[in-house]
Amino acid sequence: MSGQRFSLLIIGGYGTFGGRLARLLGEEPRIRLLIAGRSLEKADDFVADMRSPKGGAGRLGGNDLGATLHAVAFDRDGDLAEQLTRLKPDLVVDASGPFQSFTGDAYKVVQACIDLGIDYADIADSTGFVAGIGGLDAQAKAKGTFVLSGLSSLPALSFAALQAMAPHFSRIESVAAGIAPSAHVKIGLNVVRAIASYAGKPVAVLPGGRPAEGRGLIDAMRVTIAPPDVAPLASRTFLLVDAPDLALLPQHIAGLQSTFTGVGTEPQALQRLLSFAARLVNLRLLPSLKPFSRALQAASHRFALGAHRGGMFVRAGGLDREGRRLTAGWHLIAEGDDGPFIPVIGVEALVRRLLEGQRPESGARPAAGELRLADFEAAFRRFSITSGIRLDREEETQPLYRRALGSAWESLPPALAAIHGGGTRLASGRARIERGGGLLARLIASVIGFPPAGEDVPVTVHFATDGDREVWTRTFGNRSFQSWQAEGTGRDRHLLAEVFGPFRVLLALVPEGQKLRLVVRGWRFCGIPLPLFLAPGGDTYEEERDGRFHFHVEIGGRLTGLVVRYTGWLVVE
Q: Could you tell me which residues are beta bridge partners of residue 263?
């Protein structure tokens, strides 16, 4: 180390991702942070903001910075040996990019670090750059340095998720991964330029186990990102992007038959326009979308519509240990502005390992498999980030709620697990019922058959399995009404669909301590989608109290007001 502090040089340190890395590590007193870029003025401004009361490490560590910060000028096209010798970093992190645009001597910064015995890491997302880093392996080993490329969402985090799912498989045949950024996150120009560079251009994929060419931002797949513990993202289309995983996966998994990496942006209408433009490039009506990068960035900022949530998924398919078909999916959702920290969390984990004396092996290689999923999950706890794994085995019959909840089923309170245990069963108890007084509310309640208002009303619920559906017959006093529930399919995947007469309500099952909340995510009338803001909603949940199943169901809407509210308890007979 240089002196008593670990010296970290961040190239692009005041940029979109370099700045976030600096904020993650700003509270660490054992670090000397060198915020580097071509503009010393911008580096100075960033450091001043970090030190100011409104800046610092923000909510991640208050304003009390532990690290020492220095703004430095760094020109990757200048005398690299002189600059690195003068700055004396222990580790260089390249967070600039876009790495797709590096031409000529693309590895000159890496080479300069190796020559001076300085360790190096980057967050490159360029397939060619990351896959080609191994050409410097012998030199790095000879100097006793490590070089890790692609220490970002793809491939470092995606491979960590894949390794966590691998023990469930005897053979993995397909892998797909995708990133869904929040529409409200300001995408950096370098990120847009990177995406524009391969729009409509050939992208190496692996259909049927043989190398082939896909079409960037044209080929697509639809996915619903749904960690077991939170409401899922809206189902969306992911467009094919050129990511290092496409080149690295066949090297790591023998017999792999299919690969895909994609991006799914909101609003989807804007993404469809982007895909249309990519088709023009594919048809050679446009040479490239790179000249339109600033316009594309401006459009993404101007049309920031939708929920302020982002996500990521990694999906693997193949055979489990018993030879059955298995699909495993790792899902992640980040709330608000937390998503853009994910691409630099791998670098943060690396630095914290180094501070504890855990050093990677010498040599130059892609960062795929360098970190474990647990390394990332430890960092996720500082944010509103939730992740989890879902397993879907063919020919394995499980209760409806167990299928919908995935791994979250294991933490369900016993009384709730008993109610949703599957098969034919009967539960009885007592309930309190309230009814809305509006004309439309009374009409809807009459159509569906909701019971009249009452106190301490005897209630029974008969559950019957009908194929993949569960039929619920609720009897309050002498009044009964029926609905059926099933797993959502297609764009409603990972949601629970409940059907009351002509109405289909789509629900997210969200565990919350001892409660299981049912959050409305969509609805239909006679199969016709209706606006979500008009959907029947209310505070609806189940919970265990005193060892007994309790329910709180509230149905109402903007147009109707309260339709019905019934609360009470049940015991399985």
A: 179, 239
In Å, how far are 312, 330, 338, 342, 493 from 386, measured between CA atoms?
10, 11, 11, 12, 18
Beta bridge partners of 386: 333
Place of tokens 């209310």: 538
pLDDT tens for each residue of 309-354: 999 999 999 999 998 899 999 999 999 999 999 999 999 999 999 9
Residue indicated by tokens 């058959």:
449
Lowest mean per-residue pLDDT among 321-330, 374-383, 526-535: 526-535
Lowest-confidence region among 173-182, 186-195, 255-264, 561-570: 186-195
Region label for 134, one of left (φ > 0), alpha (ψ between -120 and 50) or beta (otherwise): alpha
Contact 105, 71 (CB under 8 A): no
Q: How far apart are CA 546 and CA 553, in angstroms?
A: 19
200: alpha, beta or left? (left if phi > 0; alpha if psi -120 to 50): left
- Do the beta carbons of residue 81 and residue 108 sit within 8 Å? no
C-alpha span between 432 and 140 (Å, rounded) = 72
Query: What three-state secondary structure class fits 257?
Result: coil
Identify which of 80, 86, 92 has the alpha carbon closest to the alpha carbon of residue 21: 92
Q: Which residues of 555-570 are buried (b: 16+ CB within 10 A; e: fewer)?
A: bbbeebebbbbbebbb
Terminus-to-terminus CA distance in the chain, angstroms? 68
- Residue (of 454, 497, 458, 495) closest to 474 by Cα position: 458
**Rounded Cα gap, residues 225 and 232, in angstroms:** 6
Q: Are 124 and 97 in contact (CB under 8 A)?
A: yes
Residue 453 C-beta-side C-alpha neighbours within 13 Å: 8
pLDDT digits 0-9 by tens, 33-74 = 999 999 999 999 999 999 887 544 444 544 568 899 999 999
Q: How far apart are CA 204 and CA 212, in angstroms?
A: 6
- For tokens 């370099």, what's the residue? 18
* Bridge partner list, 465: 470
**Is 258:173 a contact under the CB 8 Å cutoff?**
yes
Q: Per-residue pLDDT for 570 more than 70?
A: yes
Tokens of 18: 């370099």
Assess whether the previous peptide bond of 155 is cis (omega < 30° from 0).
Answer: yes
- Residue 154, classed as helix, strand or coil, is helix
Q: Nearest 5°: phi and psi at 412?
A: -70, 135
Those residues whose C-beta lies under 8 Å from the C-beta of residue 413, and which sit 6 or more positions away, are 514, 543, 544
Single pTM value for the model: 0.85
Q: Is 322 exposed, middle or buried (0-12, 13-18, 19+ CB in 10 A)?
A: exposed
Looking at residue 277, the DSSP 8-state letter turns out to be H
Residue type, 8: L
Run of H or E residues at 302: helix 293-302
**Do the Cβ atoms of 431 and 552 come closer than 8 Å?**
no
